[in-house]
Amino acid sequence: MKSNSYGRFMGFTSFGESHGTAIGIVIEDVKPGIVFPLNKIQEELDARKPGKTFISTTRKEEDKIVILSGIFEGKTTGMPICLVVYNRDANSKDYEHLKDIFRPGHADFTYYNKFKIYDHRGGGRASGRETISRIAASGLVDDLLKNIRINVYPVQIGRFHVKEIDPDFRNDLNWFDRSNYNELTKYLTEIKKAGNSIGGIVEVKIENISSGLGDPVFEKLDANLAKAILSIGSVKGIEFGDGFVFAALKGDQANDQMDSSGFKSNHSGGILGGISTGQNIIFRFAVKPTSSINITQKTISKDGKEVAFKSGGRHDTCIVPRILPVAKAMIKLVLADAVSYQKLISSNELDLTDYREAVDKIDEDILIALKRRNDISELIKKYKKENQIKVEDNIREKKLLKNLIKKAKSLEISEEFIKEIWKIILKESKNIQS
Ligand SMILES: Cc1cc2nc3c(=O)[nH]c(=O)nc-3n(C[C@H](O)[C@H](O)[C@H](O)COP(=O)(O)O)c2cc1C
Domains of the chain (ranges plus CATH)? Predict the structure, then answer.
């Protein structure tokens, strides 16, 4: 299963472990001749880098992006792009004693039970370092998003809430409330000193978004945003618009009424039926406290023995500040996918390049389907051989062709065309099976 790949249009595959050689991505389906935004991607990566704030891990990584393929003289060549960030400051010794222990709150237990083998060093594939790949990929979709503005900021850390918003207040944590910032930093420093960690809530406001993004029923915009955000390590909850408050509201309080000038409120968070309304999209997500803490807790070893465990490695006191650029990257990727799909169905926005791109996509889908067909033909061959069944079955073939012609007619595809294709497919199938 391709569980490390993402995207319907600009697809990419993420790879690498926290203490392996590198973290990286392979991106396919990129048009040739696009100026590759290396500096912009590097800027975004710098914002995610460890060691940026007083509460982040002391792991010092340069996180410099290295291009291995697909870019020539600063432009995409249309070939697969491979980008990597090498892991330099990986203190694997810190993790040696954890080899046989399931750290509380981490993915160790589930990875081991599922795969029976995993790279335990620094969280391996479940590490926050994996998110480098998402930021690197999102740098390529800016052109598609045009004027869309994505704001991602914390609204709660522990017992502190953002109440008085001052968007001009600049600080390490992107905390918009000047009135309680000093108290918050004191609180975080105390938590850090105690070797503990703390969670928080992040709010997202997407502005200048057109109506019509998102597709029923399994590509709904809110569903896709939720999946993308929940795919980030340590995110445990998400709500759109009034979210969980809806449970206490009555219908007349929850509905977004309309008049001739548009919506009168935005309880739904800018999405109805999985499709953007054109209002701001608003959602919030909860980030759990960092699992690694310097406090002794109970756990078990791989052989089921109870052990007392205290984390020795380096870690973030609060993941919230570091998750902001990662969430923005995932939102960009989701929106780029939705915009690309919307372009295909709202033909007034399409130009010849878009039409060609759509046709190329369909041809590629046909190729993939043919490859699958060939693979199944191989299996049929094996099955028939094992069960001594004749390869040719003329009655079945005739019946199939008749059905195909009937279906083709209903789709306004000519009988001649479908007969030709069927002849070629059948020939290939017989070649494989003979
Ligand atoms: C940017 C980022 C940095 C992270 N840093 C740490 C860390 O320093 N220590 C830690 O225990 N978890 C850290 N995490 C969280 C783990 O990746 C995550 O909690 C863990 O793998 C368990 O997965 P789950 O919380 O999604 O169930 C980080 C996550 C992100 C996105």
Answer: 5-349 (3.60.150.10), 352-433 (1.20.59.10)
